[in-house]
Every structure is written in structure tokens, then in C-alpha cells.
Amino acid sequence: MLFYRAALDLSRPTCDFVAGLIRRHRRRIGSRWRSVPEGRQALLVLVRLRRNETFAALASAFGIGVATAHRYVTEVVALLAELAPDLRQALRIAARKAFVILDGSLIATDRLSGAADRLYYSGKHRRHGVNVQFLTDPHGELIWASAALPGSTHDLTAARVHGIIDGLTSRAIACFADKGYLGAGGAIGTPYKRKKGRKLGKRKKLFNRHHARIRALGERGAATLKSWHILRKARCSPSRLSSIVQAILTLHHQAR
Predict the structure, then answer these.
(1) Which residues contact 186 (CB under 8 A, 6 or more apart)?
(2) I want to staple 153 with a disulfide (CB 3.0 to 4.6 A). Which of 76, 132, 149, 181 is the partner?
(3) Residue 5: which pLDDT band, with cuts at 50, 70 and 90?
(4) Does residue 113 surpass a pLDDT of 80?
(5) Between vectors from CA 210 to CA 207 and to CA 213, what angle results, nearest 5°?
(6) Rounded CA separation 144/134 (Å)
(7) Residue 249 falls inside a structural domain
């Protein structure tokens, strides 16, 4: 366990990995002096991502200024995000699996002022946030997560924007997805939808039950992302969430 003011449920190797990344970065840019050493900066970043502490709380706990805490976190998040697997790499991993599960998650944010307020409002979830798509293996293990799109974006639209459907179909990778992806076609398997005024037959109901049991495993992907509390209710600008999601994806793969 790592400790700052309380236990942090991450391993020492995770902190060492981030510290090593910082050390190499400082050497590369010729940074001569910092107010905290690499290990403390690594812990600072992990506390921010895992516990969603405010920058004011971090500054107080680590004995630095608020602006310095913000700068240190932003710096390392960018370094981690650069190491995250892109969709092409994820599809190479997915091709070795029996199938994958596609799903989307809303990362909640505060309300925004002006025209952006409506853009980031999800009618489905009745709250503001960003849409993140993700792929898991048959056991629900997270393989890949997308950049963030405004919360009003439909899951099917988001999957098309990111090239997920075309990527899976071109490689003939079987994929299970929920009703939010109806009409995707290609390699995306979705449950049958009951037509208005009609009932599903027994065969289709049985198919939907089996499909739902498999697809439910993919919810572990969302749980993995939101085990990092910053993705439960982000207090930062939505524009920063893409790099934060990618940073967390890097940390997840590093810890496996």
C-alpha cells in the first residue's frame, strides 16, 4: 500500500512506474530542481486520480502551492496518456480473444455555462458529462478506452466516430453490445428489439438472455475506469478528460 494521509489502494510498483516516468522526463528536459522529488510527485498524481482530491487539498498535504500541484498533475497525466494503447493496438489484442464486449460510460461533470451546457447534457442519464467508449475481453478485463465526447453523443454515434465498428468488422472480431448499438451492423452483435405492439418469440427471448449474461461481464470495464474516483464526478474541464482517461488506461495496463 502507498500512504499520504491515508491508505491508497495502489501498489508500490505503480508508484515506482510513475516515478520512473517522471525521472526520465526531467532528465530529458534538463530540469535541475523541483520542489518535490519524483516519488512524491508520482504519489501526488496518483492521489489526484484515485481519490479525486482537490488541488487545494493536494497542495496542503504535499506542502506546495496550488498552481504547482496543478502543473505537476497536468505534466504527468500527459506523459501517461502518451503511453496508452490506441485503437489499432487494442484491436490486435482483441483479435486474439474469442470475442470482445463494447460498451459506453458517462463520466459525470459539473454543469457548464453557455451553449456547451446542452452539448454535455445526457438525456439518457439526466446529467452532464462526457461519453467514453470501451472494449473488454470475454472476462470483462479492460482492453481499451476512447477519448471523451460530449455527453449528448449517442453510444452508436460515438462508436462510429472512433472507428470502433469499422475496426472490429474489418478484422472479423466478434463483439457483443447492448441495445444502444442497434443498427451498427458488421461484427457488432446486439439483442433483438421488440417491435411496438408485438412480442418476441421464445427463440429470440432465449437469445437475449444469453446475450445479456455475456454482455454484463463488460460492465467490469466501467467499474475499472470508475475505481479511479476522478471519473466518478470530474471537477475539471471536460476537455481534460480524454487525457485523464488515457492516463488511467496506461496505469491499468501497467498494473496487470
Answers:
(1) 165, 166, 168, 169
(2) 149
(3) low
(4) no
(5) 145
(6) 5
(7) no
Partners of residue 134 on adjacent β-strands: 103, 145
pLDDT in tens, 176-216: 999 999 999 999 999 998 887 788 888 999 999 999 999 99
Do 200 and 176 share a domain, yes or no?
yes
Q: Which three cell numbers stand for residue 192?
A: 433483438
Task: Specify the pTM.
Answer: 0.93
Beta strands, E only, the chain: 2-3, 7-8, 100-108, 121-122, 127-136, 142-145, 149-150, 175-176, 188-189
Are 136 and 101 in contact by the 8 Å Cβ rule? The answer is: yes
Domain contains 248: no
Nearest to 102 by CA among 150, 166, 145, 161: 145
Q: Are 128 and 151 in contact (CB under 8 A)?
A: yes
Whether 113 is covered by a domain: the verdict is: yes
Structural domain containing residue 170: 87-236
Between 33 and 163, residue with greater pLDDT = 163
